[in-house]
Design brief:
Blueprint: H1 2-12, E1 30-31, E2 35-39, H2 44-52, H3 56-60, H4 70-85, E3 90-96, E4 102-112, E5 117-125, H5 133-148, E6 154-160, H6 164-172, E7 176-186, E8 192-201, H7 205-217
Parallel strand pairs: 5-6
Antiparallel strand pairs: 1-2, 2-3, 3-4, 4-5, 6-8, 7-8
Helix pairs in contact: 2-4, 5-7
Length: 219
């Protein structure tokens, strides 16, 4: 960790570093006290459908693509495996440790090995586990892995500009809002979505880490 802090400080001062592409070794399993992020499997399509089918509009309101049928979940899995095979994503099923139940999904995406950055996104959690420590701990585990194992320089997050709940949650963990891409995506309803981008840099990670650990202690 000290070596990572030194590299972050050198980057902040504009000093030259030998840049090595991210070395991403699979599989990745991330486990905390309340949540486990495990590698995606084909059978997760049915598990996702089982946990989400009665709350599809609530869960996927802000997802730009349709998630309405069991087939949509099967297609989601197919696309996720295609992204992983191309090296663009690392996709997880989110599992509640106490019950062992699959309760959602999240992923590292838009992986840029050369420029040492990744995005955390495509996150959803079943309503019963929203407003709990689940998402906070999942973000903590992923950020820790990105900065301390992969040695990322930058982690990105983004959300629909209209999704104020998500924007507040991203700011709450310590990410910095960078700006808005106007008319960035066409959603499943035909709306032209503005997308707000946030980031955390490697030299900011120690402060963000401490903030997240404090949040988890008080949940």
């Amino acid at each position: 960790m000290q070596d990572n802090d030194s590299k972050a400080a050198m980057r902040k001062e504009g000093m030259n570093l030998e840049i090595a592409p991210l070395q991403i070794v699979l599989p990745v399993i991330l486990e905390g006290s309340v949540v486990r992020l495990e590698p995606l499997r084909r059978e997760h399509a049915e598990l996702f459908w089982d946990i989400a089918e009665n709350n599809l509009e609530d869960i996927f309101r802000w997802i730009p693509y349709p998630m309405k049928t069991r087939h949509d979940f099967e297609e989601l899995i197919d696309k996720a495996f295609d992204e992983q095979e191309r090296g663009a994503s690392v996709v997880f099923a989110t599992v509640a440790r106490q019950s062992g139940r699959t309760i959602g999904s999240t992923r590292f995406m838009n992986i840029d090995r050369i420029n040492q950055r990744v995005e955390i996104g495509s996150t959803w959690i079943a309503p019963q586990w929203q407003r709990t420590a689940t998402n906070t701990e999942a973000k903590y585990l992923m950020l820790k892995h990105a900065f301390e194992v992969w040695n990322c320089m930058r982690v990105e997050l983004k959300t629909d500009a209209l999704n104020q709940k998500s924007r507040n949650a991203i700011l709450r963990i310590g990410a910095k809002e960078e700006g808005t891409l106007r008319r960035h995506l066409i959603t499943r309803t035909g709306r032209a979505r503005d997308t707000v981008y946030f980031s955390i840099l490697d030299n900011e990670w120690p402060e963000v880490k401490a903030r997240l650990e404090e949040m988890l202690r008080t949940r």
